[in-house]
Amino acid sequence: MLAFIVAAGLWHRRQTGNAARVDFSMIEAMLWTMADPLLATQLAAPPQPHGNASNHHIPHGVYRCAGEDEWISLVATTDAEWRNLSALVPDLAPMAELGLGERRQRHETIDRSLATWLRAKSAAATEIVLLRAGIPAAALANSRDLVNSNHLKERGFWEPYGSGVLPGLPWRASFGRISAPAPEVGADTALVLRKVLELSEDEIGALSRSGALG
Fold first, then answer.
1. In whole angstroms, what is the distance from residue 26 CA to residue 22 CA?
2. Residues pairing with 72 in the sheet
3. Domain contains 106
């Protein structure tokens, strides 16, 4: 949204020659992500926390897998996906023909069955099995998984820094960039005054002595 506003301001300047004042509220920028709970609060009681559960899909959640800290997320968005999932999980087989409303009534039993089935399985291997069966799923990645991700490497997301890597910028620029610790407050003030404003050393010194530079 802010990028769009900046682009609109530049277009306005190009068309009229006038500047544009941008007043961008962080709260208003986030309100669009909270439309459902805001409407629910206006029409009824405030919504209660429900973790990884969903009001629209069942099952919908994140489940512990084998290993020290392995998890997988999955969801059945259609009855067909639910039937495919039931074919893989023995305890769900008797419930394969349940519709969404019936699954909602038995969601605790479904979650327990999935948790038991997944607890002994590898998250990465199970992700492949579920995706091949047409069931949306993703093994949750930790920091090491992200660094070793071929998907991110091929897109140049990681940039070398010291003995490790840092996330790159989400865009490419002809002028490049420098990866380094952030400058201290006022560290580049003299450089800006000298190179951009073209002030002399005497003028910069006078400003500094007057306290104008902080």
1. 12
2. 63, 139
3. yes
Q: What CATH number is attached to the domain comprising 135?
A: 3.30.1540
Instruction: Kindly give the residue spans of alpha helices, DSSP state H, lying in 89-178.
Output: 100-105, 107-118, 123-132, 143-147, 150-154
Q: Containing domain of residue 123, as a range?
A: 60-141
pLDDT digit string (tens) for the chain, length 214 residues: 788 888 999 999 999 999 888 888 887 778 888 888 888 888 887 778 888 888 899 999 999 999 889 999 999 999 999 999 999 999 999 999 999 999 999 999 999 999 999 999 999 999 999 999 999 999 999 888 899 888 898 888 888 888 888 888 777 778 777 777 778 888 889 899 999 999 999 999 999 889 888 6
Number of domains in the chain: 1
> What pTM, to 2 d.p., does this model score?
0.62
Residues 96, 82 contacting (CB under 8 angstroms): yes
Buried b (16+ CB within 10 A) or exposed e, 43-67: eeeeeeeeeeeeeebbbbbebebee
